[in-house]
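Troubleshooting log. The previous structure file for this entry was overwritten by mistake, so regenerating from the original sequence record. Sequence copied from the archived sheet and checked twice against the printout by T.R.
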Amino acid sequence: MRTLVLLRDAVLRSQPRCVIRSARKMYASVARMPTTEHILLESDFRQVPALRDARTVHARIEFRSRLRRRILQLEIIDYYYLSVRSHSRSILLEYVLDLRFVDAPRRLRHIAWRWITVSLLIALAPGIAARIDSSATRWWQADWLPVCVTLIVVWAFATLVAVYRTTETVSLFSTHGAARLLECTGGLGTFYVLRGFMKKLAAHIRLASAARRRTKAEHLRDEMREHLRLKEIGVLSAGEYETAKVRILDYHSPAAQPPIARASTTL
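Regenerated output below.
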């Protein structure tokens, strides 16, 4: 190091005074630059296998929703990956998820209570009207018959809407980026159909999480690369990718670590 300094001084002495001043300013500015860590996302990718190249298929399921006109095919391949093939109306999407960066499956049931209440009230209306109207007129000759037919049509529509809007959803999110990677929505009974596959998927997610890289820098780099790959293949939009990136960086920042972890890293 001392030899390099002497060589630099010798070179500077042989230059004009204006050059010496500009060179000294440059060296001073370089010395004041803070040291930063750069994450190179374009290199050293971990190869994610395609479904046709999978060596082992551990579990598979095909979910069909005729009411929503969607077909979803899921396959767990090579221990750490989930192959997804979604065909909804005219949209076909195929991709593979790295389970090392996927959180456990989340379930959500939405019940359309308002439409169910409307359907029940409409169903009770003809009976209440028949009890109120105690005349001896036969029911097919009653004046309220057209109204009753209209209520039956409205009841059928309200019941159909209640069935359509009562849903069960299984979702997969990235671990620290909280980006939605997969969503499977169906009617009542979806949880029952998917329960066996989701148990195996949760077990493989735990297995894959144990295979993450040990150092914080490597894990941060791998997680950022996975989100970049998902953005490039169309699973994540640009906005979802940017939001997930901010969440990942916030999670891995020193301020987000507990006091014991920060103390251990400084020792």
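The two ends are 28 Å apart (CA to CA). Archived copy saved in two places this time.
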